[in-house]
UniProtKB/TrEMBL annotation:
InterPro entries: AHAS_TPP, THDP-binding, TPP_enz, TPP_enzyme_TPP-bd. It holds the Pfam family TPP_enzyme_C. Residues 58-224 form the Thiamine pyrophosphate enzyme TPP-binding domain. This is Thiamine pyrophosphate-dependent enzyme. Belongs to the TPP enzyme family. One of its GO terms (biological process) is carboxylic acid metabolic process. PANTHER family: ACETOLACTATE SYNTHASE CATALYTIC SUBUNIT, MITOCHONDRIAL, THIAMINE PYROPHOSPHATE ENZYMES.
Length: 252
């Protein structure tokens, strides 16, 4: 019947996607020295969190890396504005996700569900960029006031990364309003709000700091200083159809 045919087509499509992933793996170089690769940071966060961790993002390169390098296995755990392009969405979305998860856990406790205690610990991680985070950083005051257990991971490249990448690819590297050379110390800003804050520059520090931040019962911010030259692909040229995407800069 129709349902069976739809299920078969869905299975075929998933198999095709797996084939493409094997044919075009999303590899990246991981040198032993700095700067950190943002993809490495996302994979470290994924490795340290539970399968049902809720991930929110702002908009930009970090959003794409969070979609590509985080392994999602549970429904309703990816919260992003997608093509709407709403910079600053990540932190407010994380606040909403935290409140929603806590509300569900409280309801289960009232109903006598023995698994409700586990849901209290559902992790909420906001993967953000320095540009997006600065749009709504003031909402840390809400997270601190309400004592919300949220971890914000800032992939800080001191750029509006997608704008910089676009200008490099199509405007011969002429940068305009893309750089954040004056970027603040996000760990210090977090502490000024009453949250916990860390700065990470070294590969060897990533796992330990992520573990410490996730263990902290309250809002925390990790300022990861990542490679400012890292680009994200695939990329669709301006005015091009999705089928014309490029996997490398040479294909643009």
């Amino acid at each position: 019947d129709a349902a069976e045919r739809a299920t078969d087509r869905w299975g075929e499509w998933r198999e095709q996607c797996r084939t493409w992933k094997e044919e075009y793996p999303m590899d990246y170089a991981t040198p032993d020295d700095e700067p950190l690769k943002p993809q490495f940071v996302v994979e470290a966060l994924d490795e340290a969190t539970d399968d049902d961790a809720i991930v929110t993002t702002g908009v930009g390169q970090h959003q794409m890396w969070a979609a590509q390098y985080w392994t999602y296995t549970s429904p309703r755990t990816w919260v992003s504005s997608h093509g709407l392009g709403t910079m600053g969405y990540g932190l407010p979305a994380a606040i909403g996700a935290r409140l929603a998860a806590d509300s569900v856990a409280a309801e289960r406790r009232r109903e006598g569900d023995g698994e409700a205690d586990d849901d209290d610990d559902q992790q909420v991680v906001c993967v953000d960029g320095d540009g997006s985070f600065l749009m709504t950083i003031q909402e840390l005051s809400v997270a601190v006031r309400e004592e919300l257990d949220i971890t914000v991971a800032v992939l800080n490249n001191e750029y509006i990364g997608m704008v910089r990448q676009w200008q490099d690819a199509f405007f011969e590297g002429r940068h305009m309003a893309a750089g954040y050379d004056w970027c603040p110390q996000f760990d210090k800003l977090a502490e000024a709000f009453g949250a916990r804050g860390w700065t990470v520059d070294d590969y060897d520090e990533v796992a330990d700091v992520v573990e410490e931040a996730l263990a902290y019962d309250g809002p925390s911010v990790i300022d990861f200083h990542v490679d400012p030259a890292a680009n994200v692909y695939p990329m669709v040229p301006s005015g091009g159809a999705n089928g014309k995407f490029a996997l490398t800069e040479d294909q643009l």
